[in-house]
Each structure stands twice: as structure tokens, then as C-alpha cells.
């Protein structure tokens, strides 16, 4: 027989065990199911107590181990689109910079992204810039990063991409190629090597010449340098011994002058430099005057809400300068279906998220798709492709 005190302790222990176990189970289910309110009220506030790079690492870990329930409901028919002979179930992808080492492609696919761009990946492993190199600007819904192409190198990333490609249900994978910091900036071999390495297994390839965190890299956007780079990389792509050549895209900066934009457009419209698409745009080195965060003056590329309108204007400019002939992936400050819709109206065929996914978590992907579907239908569009460039036509 238990004494009264022993009985009370036993009951209290059982109550605590059940309560903690129940709370843990409830939290786990909310995370697994991607409950938007739970992420907003509990998960995100917790992760913001952590160092930004630690938080980034945890997010990659969660996606790597598929710690979120697969989206079971098919995407709305209005969101399906076809580009480069690839069928996308929806136009909302993940931008390069999140899954740098190609560790989390399957989890990101399960989360609901229409495609996943990994990297940037450099030929040889490199550490990138020293810490700290990521900063949250919470008051501005933004991030500044100066990672500097931290990469495990072609070989490690290649094996992970190949494993993902062999899966029956897999992500559409873009491989974003960067340069090693020790390579001469005018030397195009890092990009040629990347094309030769990943050309047979990537769904599309991206030449990243617009990161602000590798000294001299953006100089490759100058007319003569860009023409030489694209011609060499396209030649390497066209020599690949594969049945289907991967589309080749170039990622550009938002900080180009009007003259520089015209130069880029004139190059990519030349037959020998005719890329299959452009990604508009990378992070910005500019700092809008209305930024509030104490981290606003940190060196690096700014992404998120402050980039939204800059990016949309840049998309509209390139859609106009190329007469809509070069497909655009629009990225920069997308955190709602309306944001995505504005990018598409400006001329984007596909869009990408980065900062909103980092700051709001996986539920933002499904919410943006849901909102975009509703906006398209309310504006009389049967399919997202019908809306591409509508606000830029005739301008």
C-alpha cells in the first residue's frame, strides 16, 4: 500500500509525464502537418532566438529528413505550366542559397515547391566568408547574407543530385554554378567545368555571375565579359553527350544601370549567346533609406521585402528589353500570392522564394500557391501562363 504522500507523488509524476508527452506529440504533429498558426506563434519565434546560420542549418536538417508531411492534395490546375519541355505542377520554386549542398531536395519537394534550385556550387570545396555572415532584419522582413559561395564542391553535390534524380517521385532540380574565390574572375573554366559535371543530371543549369559576396564576380555582367562567358558555356553545354540538353540560365543582379541592362539584353539575344532563360534577380547591395534594423549596414546582399519592388521593376525591364523572348524566373521579396502574381504580370514565367521561406517556414509555400490560384481565377485566367507579362505588354 502507498502512503498518501507516495500516492500523490505517483499521480503527479503520471500527470507531468502525460502532459509533457501530450504537448510534445501535439507540437510534433503541428510541425509535421505544417500548421501555419503553430509555425507563426511558436516555431518561428523559437528559431529567431538562435543565430541565423544555426537556424538555417536546422531548417536544412528538417527538410533533409523530411520532417514535414508531404503535400497530398494535387496543385490547382491553374498553377501547372510547361517550360523548356518540363512540366511544372506549380510555378513556385525555391531559390539557390537555401539548399547549398543539395541535402534537402526531397523534403523541399514534399513541402510543395514546384522546383528546387540548389547551390551555388563551386568546383572545389571552399569555406566561404568568416562568421558572422547572415543577419536577420526582422523589422524589415529581410536578410543580409555574405556567405561567399560556401560549398562542398562539385563531387559531393553531384552524388546527391544523382541520387535524387534516380527517385521515382523527385524534385525538378536546377543546379546553380559559382566560381571558386581563388579562380581568376576572367577565367570561365569554373562554369564550363560545372556544365560538364552536372549537364547530364540537372533539369536546368544556372550561371551565377551576380552574387555580391565574391569579389569581382559581378564584373562578368559587363558586355564583353558576358558575351565571352556565355559563348564558352553554351559551347560546352551543346557538346554534352546527352539526349536532352539542359536549359542554361544566367542569374543577374538588381543593381544594374539602364545601360547595363540594355547591354545584357543585347548579349543574350545574340544567336551565339542565346540562353534559355534569366533569373531576375539576385540580392542587392543597395540599402533603402527606410530600413529600420540595426543590422541594415552589414556588408552583403539584401533580400526580402525591401527587394520586392526593385525586383519587379527589373523583371519588367528585361521582359521589355527582350520582347518577352527569353523566359524569366522572378525572385525577390515574394511572401504572398499577390507578390507572385505581380512578378508574373511583369513577365516572370516562374517565381522563386528564399527569405519568406526562411522567415516564415514551410507553410508559406502552400499559402502562396493557394492565394495565387485564387487571384488567377478571380482575374479570369484559366492558367498561370496566360498572365505572363500582361502588365508589361505595350509599355
From TrEMBL:
Keywords: Flavoprotein, FMN, Membrane, Mitochondrion, Mitochondrion inner membrane, Oxidoreductase, Transit peptide, Transmembrane, Transmembrane helix. It comes from the Eukaryota. Its cofactor is FMN. It is a single-pass membrane protein. Its main location: mitochondrion. One of its GO terms (biological process) is 'de novo' pyrimidine nucleobase biosynthetic process. Residues 79-376 form the Dihydroorotate dehydrogenase catalytic domain. CDD domains: DHOD_2_like (cd04738). It is an enzyme of class 1 (oxidoreductase). Binds 1 FMN per subunit. It catalyses: (S)-dihydroorotate + a quinone = orotate + a quinol. InterPro entries: Aldolase_TIM, DHO_dehydrogenase, Dihydroorotate_DH_2, Dihydroorotate_DH_cat, Dihydroorotate_DH_CS. GO terms for cellular component: mitochondrial inner membrane. PROSITE patterns: DHODEHASE_1, DHODEHASE_2. Its EC number is 1.3.5.2. It is found in: Mitochondrion inner membrane. Pathway: Pyrimidine metabolism; UMP biosynthesis via de novo pathway; orotate from (S)-dihydroorotate (quinone route): step 1/1. GO terms for molecular function: dihydroorotate dehydrogenase (quinone) activity. NCBIfam families: PRK05286.1-2, PRK05286.2-5, pyrD_sub2. Belongs to the dihydroorotate dehydrogenase family. Type 2 subfamily. This is Dihydroorotate dehydrogenase (quinone), mitochondrial. It comes from Daphnia magna.
Amino acid at each position: 500500500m502507498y502512503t498518501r504522500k507516495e500516492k500523490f507523488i505517483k499521480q503527479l509524476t503520471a500527470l507531468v509525464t502525460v502532459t509533457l508527452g501530450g504537448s510534445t506529440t501535439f507540437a510534433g504533429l503541428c510541425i509535421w502537418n505544417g500548421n501555419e498558426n503553430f509555425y507563426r506563434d511558436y516555431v518561428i519565434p523559437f528559431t529567431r532566438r538562435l543565430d541565423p546560420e544555426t537556424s538555417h542549418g536546422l531548417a536544412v536538417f528538417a527538410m533533409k529528413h523530411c520532417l514535414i508531411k508531404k503535400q497530398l492534395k494535387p496543385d490547382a490546375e491553374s498553377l501547372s505550366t510547361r517550360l523548356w519541355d518540363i512540366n511544372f505542377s506549380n510555378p513556385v520554386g525555391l531559390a539557390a542559397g537555401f539548399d547549398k549542398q543539395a541535402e534537402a531536395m526531397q523534403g523541399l519537394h514534399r513541402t510543395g515547391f514546384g522546383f528546387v534550385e540548389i547551390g551555388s556550387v563551386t568546383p572545389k570545396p571552399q569555406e566561404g566568408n568568416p562568421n558572422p555572415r547572415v543577419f536577420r532584419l526582422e523589422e524589415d522582413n529581410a536578410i543580409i547574407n555574405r556567405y561567399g559561395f560556401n560549398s562542398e564542391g562539385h563531387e559531393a553535390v553531384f552524388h546527391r543530385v544523382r541520387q535524387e534524380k534516380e527517385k521515382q517521385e523527385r524534385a525538378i532540380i536546377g543546379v546553380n554554378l559559382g566560381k571558386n574565390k581563388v579562380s581568376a574572375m576572367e577565367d570561365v573554366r569554373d562554369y564550363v567545368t560545372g556544365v560538364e559535371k552536372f549537364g547530364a543530371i540537372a533539369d536546368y543549369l544556372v550561371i551565377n555571375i551576380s552574387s555580391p559576396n565574391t569579389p569581382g564576380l559581378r564584373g562578368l555582367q559587363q558586355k564583353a565579359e558576358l558575351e565571352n562567358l556565355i559563348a564558352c558555356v553554351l559551347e560546352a553545354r551543346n557538346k554534352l553527350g546527352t539526349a536532352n540538353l539542359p536549359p542554361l540560365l544566367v542569374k543577374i543582379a538588381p543593381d544594374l544601370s539602364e545601360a547595363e541592362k540594355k547591354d545584357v539584353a543585347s548579349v543574350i539575344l545574340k544567336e551565339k549567346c542565346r540562353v534559355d532563360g534569366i533569373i531576375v534577380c539576385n540580392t542587392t547591395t543597395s540599402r533603402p533609406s527606410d530600413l529600420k534594423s540595426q543590422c541594415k549596414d552589414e556588408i552583403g546582399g539584401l533580400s526580402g521585402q525591401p527587394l520586392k519592388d526593385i525586383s519587379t521593376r527589373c523583371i519588367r525591364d528585361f521582359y521589355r528589353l527582350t520582347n518577352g523572348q527569353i523566359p524569366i524566373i522572378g525572385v525577390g521579396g515574394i511572401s504572398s500570392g499577390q507578390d507572385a502574381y505581380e512578378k508574373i504580370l511583369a513577365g516572370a514565367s516562374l517565381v522563386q522564394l528564399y527569405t519568406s521561406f526562411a522567415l516564415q517556414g514551410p507553410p508559406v509555400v502552400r499559402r502562396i500557391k493557394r492565394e495565387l490560384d485564387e487571384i488567377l481565377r478571380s482575374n479570369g485566367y484559366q492558367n498561370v501562363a496566360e498572365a505572363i507579362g500582361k502588365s508589361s505588354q505595350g509599355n
